[in-house]
Amino acid sequence: MMPMKRENPHAFPSVPNQLPATSGTPTRKHPRLDRAQLPSNWPYMLPEPKQYFRRRIAELCSPNAIGWAQGKCPFHKDPAAAFCVNLRWDQPQWRCFGGCGSGNMVDFHMRMYGLDFSEAVAELLLGLA
Fold first, then answer.
1. Residue 86 within any structural domain of the chain
2. Is the distance from CB of 51 to CB of 45 less than 8 angstroms?
3. Distance, CA of 61 to CA of 118 (rounded, Å)
4. Is residue 62 a part of any domain in this protein?
5. I want to staple 120 with a disulfide (CB 3.0 to 4.6 A). Which of 65, 92, 98, 115 is the partner?
């Protein structure tokens, strides 16, 4: 007999249409999670920052000793590398010195794709980002 696989109580379904359905809600283009559905450790379940930001920021250089790397801002035309991201696992943050703002990985995903908080977190946690 094969041993039974234990399910992780904090794991999210791997397919977006397996998310808990809400009655009367039209089908959305993006998956959505309510804050009540998020496990308490959801920030530690986000994608690895280095891979996430490297796919989205042009000409991202190698990080310095404390984890910050520079690249071109995806939110405005940027002739210089005025956009910085922290690629450390415990502090995935970004900042544009051209005036676009700053935030964490969820803020970046929300702004990059025009999503609200629930949609952005759902995409990041489900691996759709």
1. yes
2. no
3. 31
4. yes
5. 115
Instruction: Going residue by residue through the chain, which has 129 residues, state the pLDDT in tens, using 9 for 90 and above.
Output: 454 444 444 444 443 434 344 444 444 466 677 667 777 888 888 889 998 999 888 888 999 999 899 999 999 887 888 899 999 877 789 999 988 899 999 999 999 999 988 889 888 988 776
112 is in which domain, residue-wise? 47-126
Q: For the chain, what is the domain count?
A: 1
Q: Is the pTM of this model over 0.85?
A: no
Phi then psi for 84, rounded to 5 degrees?
A: -125, 140
- 101-104 β-sheet, strand order: 68-71, 83-86, 93-96, 101-104
Residue with tokens 């250089």: 61
